[in-house]
Amino acid sequence: MIVAFSVSPLGVGEDVGEYVADAVRVVRESGLPHRTDAMFTSVEGEWDEVMDVVKRAVAAVEARSARVSLVLKADIRPGVTDGLTSKVATVERYLADGDAP
Prior knowledge:
It is a single chain. By secondary structure, this protein is α+β, with helices and mostly antiparallel strands. The protein has one domain (2-98): 2-Layer Sandwich (Alpha-Beta Plaits), CATH 3.30.70.930. It is 44% helix and 23% strand. It contains three helices and four strands, in the order E-H-E-E-H-E-H. It has a four-stranded antiparallel β-sheet with strand order 2-3-1-4, covered by helices on one side. Helix 1 runs antiparallel to helix 2. It is globular. The model has no long low-confidence stretch (mean pLDDT 94). Belongs to the UPF0045 family. This is MTH1187 family thiamine-binding protein. It holds the Pfam family Thiamine_BP.
C-alpha cells in the first residue's frame, strides 16, 4: 500500500516548514520506503505500519499546534511492493516512448 499524505498546523501563520519537517522526520525515521515532494509525503508498506507512521507524524505536528490538517490518499494493492519506484518508472517509460500507448 502507498499512502500520500500532507499534514500541517493551522493557526500558526504562513511559515509551516518547521512543523512539516517534524512530520517528515517521523517518516524518515520509520525505515519505510518514502518520498517527499512539495505537496505530499508518500510512504509504502503494510496497512498497520503505514497508518502508524501517519498517526505519529500527525502527533508530531499536534505537539506544537492546537489544530492540525491532514489530507490522505491511499493506493491499496495487496501483494504489490516497490510501488513508489515502479509507478513512476512506468510513466517515465511511456514518456520516453512518445505518444505510444
